UniProtKB/TrEMBL annotation:
Name of one Pfam family that matches: Glyoxalase
InterPro entries: Glyas_Bleomycin-R_OHBP_Dase, Glyas_Fos-R_dOase_dom, PhnB-like
TM annotation in the entry: none
Coiled coil: none
Protein name, entry field: PhnB protein
Positions of the Glyoxalase/fosfomycin resistance/dioxygenase domain: 14-125
Database matches in SUPFAM superfamilies: Glyoxalase/Bleomycin resistance protein/Dihydroxybiphenyl dioxygenase (SSF54593)
């Protein structure tokens, strides 16, 4: 059984965010507009539903009307051991682009490597691996 998939409600940036995550993680991206879903509660070109399927799964939509948009506090999206070390380092570096390197990906005293980054969309990622 797969784990939970984050589903983000974004302030008109769902296409941009999901494209960024596809460029970072790889995978297949599907985007569906409000017009395709016959929705009239937002701009026709807004994303009613989008999903990235691949090594990291993320779904998102553009919030309609006065729906709240994503604001994450006290949550880390953990990518611990989810890929080989070189891939995890690349993901960390790419997530830092336009974001904030909170704690550099580095070797810890106990031997593992980990670090934290808040990406440009406000999500905080914990990236790490064991040697």
């Amino acid at each position: 059984m797969p784990g939970p998939t984050p589903y983000l409600q974004l302030p008109g940036t769902a296409r941009e965010a999901l494209t960024f995550y596809r460029d970072v993680f790889g995978g297949e991206l599907a985007l569906f507009t409000y017009a395709q879903f016959n929705r009239e509660d937002g701009p026709a070109e807004a994303i009613a539903h989008g999903e990235l399927r691949g090594p990291v799964a993320v779904s998102a939509s553009d919030a309609a009307g006065d729906e709240p948009t994503v604001r994450v506090e006290g949550v880390l999206f953990a990518l611990l051991g989810t890929a080989d070390p070189a891939t995890l380092q690349t993901w960390f570096d790419r997530l830092c682009e336009g974001g904030t390197d909170v704690d550099p990906l580095q070797q810890r005293p106990w031997g593992a490597h980990d670090g934290q980054v808040t990406d440009r969309y406000g999500l905080r990622w914990l990236v790490g691996y064991e040697d």
